[in-house]
Amino acid sequence: MDAFVVAEASINAFVVAGLILAAWAVLVALLGMRGFPSNRGGERIAIGVTAVLFVGAVGSALADQTKVGERHGPEIEEPAEGKSTGEGGGGQEAAAGGEAEAPPKDEGEQKGEGGAPTALALAADPSGATRYDKTSLTANAGQVTITMTNPSPIAHNVALRGNGVEEEGQVVQGDEESTVEAKLEPGMSYEFYCSVPGHEQGGMKGTLTVK
Description:
The chain is α/β, with parallel strands linked by helices. It folds into two domains: 2-77; 118-210, Immunoglobulin-like. The chain is built from three helices and eight strands, in the order H-H-H-E-E-E-E-E-E-E-E. The longest helix has 38 residues, at 40-77. The chain starts with a helix and ends with a strand.
């Protein structure tokens, strides 16, 4: 901003010097038509004044070009204020926009945190139908616990099998919980089901995928 003010002042000085020089030239031309200067001394004075005005006009023009260059230089070299660079742009955007929201979990997935066992939840159909509220579950490898709540008037449980695992939870009813627990391997699929006779065949089962 200061450089711009200085450059503007230089332009004004150049304009003023140019106007004075032009006015002096017109005045000398008019006086010359009447025989001015009439002697050598007057001629020298006229030439000296003309030279001074000319040098002043040229000097103002040169100063204007220098100041304009100084003013434009920083504007080209300095990046625009508030514009982020390519590196670290993601971190700045995250800081400006706040913490990024975690993606929603898959249906039936409840991942353990900090190395804790994965806890999964199921519920039996409250109408008494032989089915769970989920047909697929997802868990991290390691210790996994499945807890089934039974709001149905019919007794149910939850059991788990596959890849060497064969576990059955307690048969419950009246909003009680049946729990099964096992250590599961990554990349494997297991089957959870109700071990009460006829319930699995009626559709009370699902697939557990381990990441």
